[in-house]
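Record type: monomer structure entry
Structure origin: computed from sequence
Chain ID: A
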Amino acid sequence: MLTRIVRMTFQPEKVADFLAIFQDSENKIRNMPGCRHLELWQDADLPHVYCTHSRWDSATDLNNYRHSALFGQVWPATKALFAAPPLAFSVYPAGQDSSSPALPTT
């Protein structure tokens, strides 16, 4: 299981526009093959900063979404609202990446 987190800083006056985009697309994203979870987080101290947290069966599933027509609509519209570049990263639970052996335990 791959977890993807994308931290996005929006122009404060564009937050409502982003929320409308997210609301319109969240169920479509959740229905993409391999997507097991999607939620939106708002920063506790900076109300114009949001993170998407999603879980995917594999990196291939995430990349298939990232190359889909849906992503091609959602990401450019979202990106136009940024006040700063996004920070995105993908992680596996420690020792769970199928391409590497489990970490030793002591």
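Annotation 1: The chain has one domain: 2-91.
Annotation 2: The first strand starts at residue 2 and ends at 9.
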